[in-house]
Amino acid sequence: MDYRDFEMNKHFHSDGSFRSKFRKSSKFMYLVAFVLFLGVALTFLNIFELHKMREDYNQHHEMFPHVEGIQDDKTGTGQVVWVQGKNMHSGYLKHVHNVFQQIGFTPGDQSDDWTVLWAHDYPFKTLSKELAHLKKYQKVNHFPGSGFITNKVSLATSKMKFIPKAFKLPSQKDQFVAFSKSHPDMMWVQKNNNHRGIQIKGAEELDMTKEGSFIQEFIDKPFLIDGHKFDIGVYTILTSINPLRVYIVEDDALIRFCPEEYYPFDTAVRDKYVVHDEYMPLWKIPSLRSLYSDKGFNFKTTLNQYMKSKGLDYEKVWNDMKSAIQQVYLEKEPKLIEYSAKYPSTDHFFEMVRFDFVLDEKLNTYLMEVNMSPNLSSRHFAQNKRLYEHVVFNVLSLVGLAEYVSHEHLDYEEIGRVAPTDVRVFPEVCNGKICSESCVSSQCKLCRRCVNRQTETFLMRAYLEHNRRWSTRRVLPPPVNQTQALLWDPATYWPGSETMSDRNRLMFHWFVGKCRQSMDFCV
Ligand SMILES: *[C@@H]1O[C@H](CO)[C@@H](O)[C@H](O)[C@H]1NC(C)=O
Ligand SMILES: *[C@@H]1O[C@H](CO)[C@@H](O)[C@H](O)[C@H]1NC(C)=O
């Protein structure tokens, strides 16, 4: 009921002068007319309310189309998400909740029959009891041992060419002292696992005794836009180890700028060279504002278009970042396999992290860190809601959570979605004499008579993922184009690799085979 209508009626009645203005005979008529008017008005109001209720109902059901279907499900497999983190009331996981709600999940906790655990912090120590005996359909948003990738010391001291040179303290102190003496021009930053407490220092000012910290080369001469240094955050999703499957959100990235211009350079002013929580958003950068704010492009397209307009090869930059991501996972996969060994299956696990890169003037790419549970809070910048929800949706879509599947079937086949016939590749080879007689030759490994059930299962998972990838794209195994696929020799490794596990080779080879069949599986 509209409050203002009620107020007006009150005034009407309480106005004493009203009645005296009219003769007694017409008073009755007015009363009847008024009552009639009131009746009609009330009827209209009711119709309006009913209409509005229906509209709300429709809107709600458009927004949450799956909710009803799942709750009515006769098999009782209503899906529950257990979102876990410290101080959740502060709302930093709001966008995670939003997306789960959109795709039909209800929030719950460990006491429920949950389908997915979305833990903000690494859960394998604190929740080891809950995670020791997972039901076959339960999924968890981390991999055991993923700290080998996201731990700053561990990552920085992995010797890869795109990681700025680093020394672990105190164990590599002597090496550092020797190195810095022969490279007096290099600047250094001291970091530790918990803080990005970054401040540039001369070699002589560093505290060499601090346990759990490291010293890293500072990348000077960064690539600047309108005088500001920036970093690029690439959202990366690991869906499988042994074989490895890694994807990135392909169509967008987080691009954050330092609040102050880099030059004139001053090590005392961190705002010139450190991207932190209070960063400067892309739309504050004059050369980018119009593309982003007026023309409505996303972060990635805005950056690419800017670089293109300056004649710079942005494709190379993205390819270098992909190649860095590939190398990190290939390097750390053995550790991940080792740490996952005590779990009966790693099919439960997936993980989304953010790789942060900076560029130098020559457009060389440097990996600064990998964030487990990257910040998805849009508290400072409401505009980031779109990106964060897009990322979360992509992750959930890729791992098959954004599409309702009855738990009964998740074991092996998802009826109508995938069947063993969908994963057959290399018909010309498998139909030939060699592979009809034995499985010894490497080219026969993917033929029906040579794949065991376990292999067939991970191939079917790969097939489903590929079809559910939304705007993510695979970085491992590396995609090939159809020309390469047709020339492919099954005895070799993937481009640029010298070693490769049998499983990884099989997985790669399978994608090559699918790419021969359909362009959709190629680059
Ligand atoms: C995440 O970012 C928000 C700003 O959007 C900030 O307030 C918050 O402290 C950040 N959280 C963490 C854990 O870094
Ligand atoms: C396929 O990839 C190879 C190697 O990267 C490249 O040389 C070739 O031009 C590509 N072919 C097509 C049709 O894109």
UniProtKB/TrEMBL annotation:
PROSITE patterns: TTL (PS51221). Gene3D superfamilies: ATP-grasp fold, B domain (3.30.470.20). Keywords: Membrane, Transmembrane, Transmembrane helix. The chain crosses the membrane at residues 28-48. PANTHER family: LD09343P (PTHR47113:SF1). This is Tubulin polyglutamylase ttll-15. It comes from Littorina saxatilis. The lineage of its organism: Eukaryota, Metazoa, Spiralia, Lophotrochozoa, Mollusca.
